[in-house]
Write a structure and sequence with these properties.
The protein has two helices and five strands. A five-stranded antiparallel sheet has the order 1-2-3-4-5. With 110 residues, the chain is of the alpha+beta class.
Amino acid sequence: MLYKNEFGSDFDLGFNLNDYSYLNDKSWHNDASPSFYFNVGSQYYVLWVDYSEPSKREDSNSRYLIQEAINEGSENDPEVYSSDGGVIFESEKTRELNQFLKALFTHSGK
């Protein structure tokens, strides 16, 4: 798991990553926090998961943030990057993240 290599084996996502098979770890140590990309249809998104303790965060963002993203690669070899702005979700609570993701996929018909 990239996020553990980049941010430490004790980094707490606040959820079990195995429960979200569609999340692809794209964490990189130069980023402020772990990140995961996923797509709903042809639209890509990036989920940023920050530290649970606000004092450890570089930015004043909420713990969970989802941004619209673009895939500069192909479907078979994606290179997904957050687009400028495009924040569609922010929350401190895992429960709210779960509800948002469920609604996003339900709305898309997946």
